[in-house]
Amino acid sequence: MKKIKITCFICVVVLAVISLSGCAMINNVFNKVREEWSGINFVASVYDSYGNKTLKMKGSSLSINTLKESGIFLDSEGNDKTYQSSVLDVTIDGRQVLMVGDTIIFAEDGLDMVTDFSVDEINSEKNTPNIQWIDRNINKFKNKIGKNRTIIISTQMGVPIGVYQGNSVYVEVPGDLPKTTRLSIDGKIMYIHRANYQIIDSSLIQ
Q: What pTM was computed for the model?
């Protein structure tokens, strides 16, 4: 038991050191551990279809999961199929909120929204030739390190909500959270749930 505790402690320390080294993907892994064990101080903002904030939730320890219920149905051939719940299970300081269908932004304390920002054109002019499959793989690698990006968020009807920016942004789509994108922005966590968004390399914005 003592060896297990020592091993766990070493793993946490290693993750912390690597996190501080600036790799956004590793930083994101470390934040997942922190979120799972102690919870993270989030502000959750809920919006209607017209971009109006209808609810704000804040807690000293907030975590997000999916209600672990699934149903079974028969496909056209009579075989059993399962489907995943689309209900968010939000834990706030030990209490529970179940949510479905809303546009929600979960932003860790310290992530500030830019509200007076608009982008109506992206225009890139480059004289050097590009090989697209190489560029795609370079972008995948840069995503793991963290890229300078601008995140423009709107409702599912396309009404603007706000903008976030970061020098080191990592993006992933969690397999266990429906219609949700998770971002690490300069070491802090954000979830975008049921919203339209564009995540743009900031160098493309004039």
A: 0.73
